[in-house]
Amino acid sequence: MFNSPLPAEPELLRALLEPLLDDFQYWFGRSQALLESERLTFLTESEQQEMLERVLESKQSVSVMQSLLTATDGQVGVDMQVLMGWHKLVHECWGLSTRYRQSQQ
After folding, report:
1. CA torsion, ordered 24, 27, 32, 38, to nearest 10 deg
2. Measured by CB atoms within 10 angstroms of the end CB, which terminus of the chain is less buried, N or C?
């Protein structure tokens, strides 16, 4: 999950990662709320449950990364494959939200 050693200054790393991780938490939180409170008829129940599990797992992983970033004063980074996985999941979450809004019209 983590790259080391990092060539970037800790301040720069924190300046880049903190807002990105906050964004991931925001979108995962919104998706969690939607998946837990609504029955998305365009997904099977098992697909909806699997999506919720992926969102919860990623949300927890982001929390761990945020804690590590804080605890190490910006001395850790996140592997690009991990970041891209979270980014891909956020795109899926956006798609769910769009499909849900369309199904409500």
Report:
1. -160
2. C
Amino acid identity, position 29: G
What tens digit of pLDDT does each residue of 10-49 get?
A: 788 888 899 999 999 999 999 999 999 999 999 999 999 9
Domain ranges of the chain: 79-105
**88 vs 66: CA distance, rounded Å:** 19
Instruction: Report the C-alpha gap between 43 and 92 in whole angstroms.
Output: 13
The amino acid at residue 13 is: L
Residue 18, token pair as written in the block:
């903190």
Contact (CB, 8 A) for 35 and 52? yes
Checking if the pLDDT of 83 tops 70, the result is yes
Q: Global pTM?
A: 0.87
